[in-house]
UniProtKB/TrEMBL annotation:
This protein's UniProt keywords: ATP-binding, DNA-binding, Metal-binding, Nucleotide-binding, Repressor, Transcription, Transcription regulation, Zinc, Zinc-finger
Organism superkingdom: Bacteria
Pfam families referenced in this protein's UniProt entry, alphabetically: ATP-cone, Zn_ribbon_NrdR
Native organism taxonomy: Bacteria, Pseudomonadati, Pseudomonadota, Alphaproteobacteria, Hyphomicrobiales
GO molecular function: ATP binding; DNA binding; zinc ion binding
Family affiliation: Belongs to the NrdR family.
Keyword Metal-binding in annotation: yes
Protein name, UniProt field: Transcriptional repressor NrdR
InterPro entries the record matches: ATP-cone_dom, NrdR-like_N, RNR_NrdR-like
Protein role: Negatively regulates transcription of bacterial ribonucleotide reductase nrd genes and operons by binding to NrdR-boxes.
Cofactor(s) essential for the protein: Zn(2+)
Amino acid sequence: MRCPYCGSVDTQVKDSRPAEDSSCIRRRRVCPTCGGRFTTFERVQLREIIVVKKSGRRAPFNRDKLMRSVEIALRKRPVEAERVEQMISGIVRQLESLGEVEVESQRIGELVIEGLRSLDPVAYVRFASVYRDFREVRDFSAVIDELESGGDGAAFAPDADDPEKA
């Protein structure tokens, strides 16, 4: 593992232990060259996943990017980091278990929406507003009404009631 401070490739593991829900290993490392200390996480990767964007462009799946987008939706919300990590790990496992090398970004977005729906309703509305490209107040109202009624979310699928957007 390359040292993030000096670039040396000769780092040493000082401590290893399971992290979160035992889905990864947390390693404390030290660089003998500069003395810098840092932490790495080792996770199982069943297969390489390629994300197919709306534009048709393809990019490698990035777990950290997924985590950042969820953290933005959850900003200043009282949700434990462990529950967020479990949700992200669950999404990654679902993607890997699809058995497909390429996954459309829309499918990933739907998995995040499902996860946030049960994790935190405010984060769910925040994420949905960006993911589904809300343009009017009634878009928010439809999501909130659906949450309050306990529906499955089909009523506010993207562009469901606006033929011009379809």
